[in-house]
Amino acid sequence: MKKLISVLMTLCLAMLLLTGCGTSPAKTDAAKDTVPPDIKAIKDRGVLKVGVKVDVPKFGFKDPASGKVDGFEIDLTRALAKKILGDETKIDVQGVTAKTRGPLLDNGEVDLVIATFTITEERKNSYNFSDPYFTDGVGLLVKKNAGISSLKDLDGKKIGVAQSATSKKALQEAADKLGIKLSFLEFGTYPEIKTALDAGRIDCFSVDAAILFGYLDDSTVILADRFSPQQYGVASKKSNTALAKQVNDTISEMKANGELDKLIQKWGLK
């Protein structure tokens, strides 16, 4: 009998040990459950979906020949994918404009927008924004032979701006201070504005100066004037708070270790 009891106790101990081992998957599942839903959705999908510019040289530009999109903001997208998914190649970039980037975030077609998106108090009501990763100012691109040297010379002239961009507001405020009148024509894309300038339909192409440098040619000049500092941030859906924190932590880390400055220098943006 004593021998039987000893055997039974040994079997019970073995079963307890096996049961203990069997709790590991449950613990693993519990660990998975601690991943916030907005980040888990990206991990489960295996790709980070980002809205980027495809018509802004040095920031996000699609090569007509190869179809490849590259630029400073694409490199930033890769850095975020590496942080979230462990692989910088796991990105799905979609071309956006100033008018479409917000709606694409709203309907969940993209996780983030990294597309020269200026941080404003009004926009903060609709989206999460990271700390700024680049600061610029609204500039003016005009024809060299137009006899225009400052905003004041554009009194009564036509300014081409992008739809839903902040350029129009910045210039209007500056014009009001100078006591001059400007008229604005809005376009869907930057190439359209440049075409309108070349055709004489407008007298000035206005957007952030760093963007204008991508459209500078032998017939045009960027004036020295700069208006309303434009700080670019990574935007995410208001409800995706964990993703917003992950993005901001990554950008803060890149600022601290000099990686962000290296990217800015790589693309000649200083």
Automatic annotation (TrEMBL):
Keyword annotations of the record: Signal, Transport
Location of the Solute-binding protein family 3/N-terminal domain: 47-270
Superkingdom of origin organism: Bacteria
Domain Ionotropic glutamate receptor C-terminal, residue spans: 47-270
Pfam families: SBP_bac_3
InterPro entries hit by this protein: Bact_solute-bind_prot3, Iontro_rcpt_C, SBP_3_CS, Solute-binding_3/MltF_N
Keyword Acyltransferase carried by entry: no
Signal peptide positions (record): 1-26
Protein family: Belongs to the bacterial solute-binding protein 3 family.
Name used for this protein in its record: Major cell-binding factor
The species this protein was found in: Sporomusa acidovorans (strain ATCC 49682 / DSM 3132 / Mol)
Lineage: Bacteria, Bacillati, Bacillota, Negativicutes, Selenomonadales
